[in-house]
Specification:
single chain, about 450 residues, alpha/beta, Nucleotidyltransferase, domain 5, 16 helices, about 55% helix, globular
Length: about 450
């Protein structure tokens, strides 16, 4: 009798209260229940797990902070499906990680499709005019240099060797170069910043030390296989193989060559170098994200690429995803000149995607044949609306740096960021629609 019932005390006009009424929670439960087993201990409620992820990216906080805010904030608890205020621990931060790993990329796509189609059924999402652009999503890694990679991979191998030595005894001594390697690395960072020749000599010294550690570790791997410790041997050999790749790419860089598949991070080996032609930063390390929004600023679809892919190759996949998620195909598409290609190819792509109009300016001095048409000019003026949307996604909804691991983490970060942005936009669009309907009814009554 002393519990706080949300329906009696909370403001129904609050943004989160309005947003909770616009999301199809029953549809989400039916869609995601396939990832839950009827046996054993029951998992956390689907509405709570989806809701806390949306709120986490809506207010730009970490997993730990989102869990704390859920315990303290009544509006957060009401959004996540609770009827009364909960004073005990609701969920642990590790449960969020387990939920993301449980549903995977396909589960996140189902969440996005279910929520977006519900908004389309309510008449809140328009798909006739679509704007397309690409941006980079950096990974949460340090700036990769050859000296840092050599030092990190040497330390990682030494740490693994110490773990192996706790279980298996070895007669031969193992030299780790811990003190000398750290001295040379600090020398590179402090004194060789503006001295290319001295920096190369220091990198070669670090490479020699790392190569000796790898040679000693390779002999240990052979000894472990001979003794029958196959599991320990495989774990150590996995780290040694990464060290050999770092050594090989460093040798090519010192020789003036460009390695084909370069490793930029040890814990994120699939990171790509992204160059977008900006003054600062000139190069980012992460993935390419292609976004498609409508004229209201709602993100309709997105695609992620683990390589520095040209913009023109991302246009067709992201438009096809719009039709798959919303169930409707766009009629007019506008993009910048980075999506330009030969006029014949562009026309074939327009017919293949069943587009009515495609507004993309030409590169160079020669203008587009239809650049003087009113619809083409309107499309280009409308295209600029996607730039502030990308800015808000990066600054407000954690798209500026992906802290989730692997390629699946890139997709996960984009899905939750776009859902948080769309929830904010759809809530305001629904409120504006209600105000117009109220004003219309008042005029009819008058």
């Amino acid at each position: 009798m002393f519990e706080l019932i949300f329906s009696d005390r909370l403001d129904p006009e609050h943004e989160l209260m309005r947003a909770a009424n616009l999301i199809d929670w029953d549809g989400l439960h039916e869609t995601l229940e396939r990832y839950y087993s009827p046996r054993g201990r029951s998992g956390k409620p689907i509405r709570m797990m989806v809701g806390i992820h949306i709120l986490k990216h809506r207010y730009n906080c970490s997993d730990e902070r989102a869990v704390e805010e859920l315990r303290e904030n009544a509006y957060w608890q009401c959004f996540c499906g609770f009827k009364t205020f909960q004073t005990s621990d609701i969920v642990d931060a590790t449960s969020l990680v387990k939920f993301r790993n449980r549903i995977g990329i396909k589960g996140m796509e189902l969440i996005e499709q279910t929520v977006t189609r519900a908004w389309c059924a309510q008449g809140l999402v328009k798909t006739k005019r679509v704007l397309v652009d690409t941006t980079s999503q950096p990974k949460n890694i340090g700036y990769p240099t050859d000296a840092d990679l050599l030092h990190k991979v040497r330390e990682k191998i030494v740490k693994k060797v110490k773990e192996v030595c706790k279980e298996v005894a070895f007669c031969r001594p193992f030299r780790s170069f811990r003190r000398k390697g750290k001295q040379v690395l600090l020398h590179v960072k402090k004194l060789c910043r503006h001295k290319p020749q001295a920096r190369q000599q220091a990198i070669k010294a670090i490479k020699v030390m790392t190569a000796k550690v790898i040679s000693q570790s390779a002999k240990m791997v052979n000894s472990l296989y001979a003794r029958g410790h196959n599991t320990l041997a495989r774990e150590l050999n996995r780290v040694v193989s990464v060290g050999k790749k770092v050594i090989n790419q460093t040798e090519k860089v010192l020789a003036g060559e460009n390695p084909a598949k370069r490793i930029y991070s040890l814990h994120e080996p699939k990171v790509a170098a992204i160059k977008k032609g900006k003054a600062h930063p000139s190069c980012e390390f992460g993935s390419i994200v292609s976004l498609a929004i409508n004229e209201d600023g709602v993100v309709l679809s997105h695609e992620e690429y683990q390589e520095n892919i040209p913009d023109v190759k991302t246009l067709a996949p992201v438009l096809q995803t719009v039709g798959r998620i919303t169930g409707e195909h766009p009629q007019e598409v506008a993009a910048d000149r980075g999506f330009d290609q030969l006029q014949e190819k562009q026309e074939r792509m327009r017919k293949r995607l069943k587009l009515k109009r495609l507004s993309i300016p030409k590169k160079g001095k020669k203008p587009h044949p239809e650049s003087k048409q009113p619809w083409f000019k309107r499309g280009q003026r409308r295209r600029a609306r996607i730039e502030p949307v990308i800015g808000h996604l990066k600054n407000d909804h954690r798209l500026s740096r992906c802290r989730y691991q692997g390629p699946q983490g890139d997709t996960s970060n984009v899905v939750w960021a776009t859902l948080a942005w769309n929830m904010k936009k759809i809530t305001r669009l629904a409120h504006r629609k209600e105000e117009k309907q109220t004003l219309r009814r008042n005029k009819q009554a008058a």
